[in-house]
Input
Amino acid sequence: CGALGCEYLKGLALMGIATGKDGKIVVTDMDRIEVSNLSRQFLFRQPDVGHPKSVRGAMVVKKWNPSVNIEALEKKVGDDSEDYFNDKFWENLSVCWNALDNVQARQYTDARCLFYSKPLLESGTLGTKCNHEVVLPFRTSSYNDGKESDDNENQIAMCTLRSFPYLPKHCIEYAKQAYFSDYFEFGPD
Output
C-alpha cells in the first residue's frame, strides 16, 4: 500500500466495492510502514510505523466501511508465491488492480491476467512520474507488449529507500537525502 495503493483502497472502500457476500478485496504488500511514508500515504499515522502496510491499510478502510470484505497479505507477487496466487485465486478474480513497485512483478501479474483472461488496471509511480494502463486480454495491448525493464531506469523511487539501504546506489541516494539536502540543491540528472 504505497501512495497509489492507499488511494485505490480508499476509493474501493468508499464506493462499497466488495461488500456483497461474494465480494472480496485482496491487498498484498511486503513492506513495512516507515516515517518517510507518512507524508504521502495518508492511511498511515505515526503509531503505524513498523507495521505491515497491507494490514494497516486494510484495517483503516475497514473502519471507514465495516461492510467491505478485505484480506491483507504480506506476500511477494511472483512465481514463488503461487502457493497462494494459484489457479483458484486467479479464476475467482474479477479484476486485478496493480500498484506495484517493480517491473518484474508487473510483468508476472500481466502474464497471469492474460493467461486467465482477467482485466488488469496497471499503474505505477517513480518520483513525479506516473503511468496508468487498462489491459483487456485479447482486446488491448498488454503490459508485457512494452519494452520496459528495471535496467533502463536511473531514478530511485524514494519509497524504496530503507532505513538500512543495501544497494550501493540506494546508499548514495540515502546519504544525499539524509545528510546533504540542507546544504546542496540536487537537480535532475
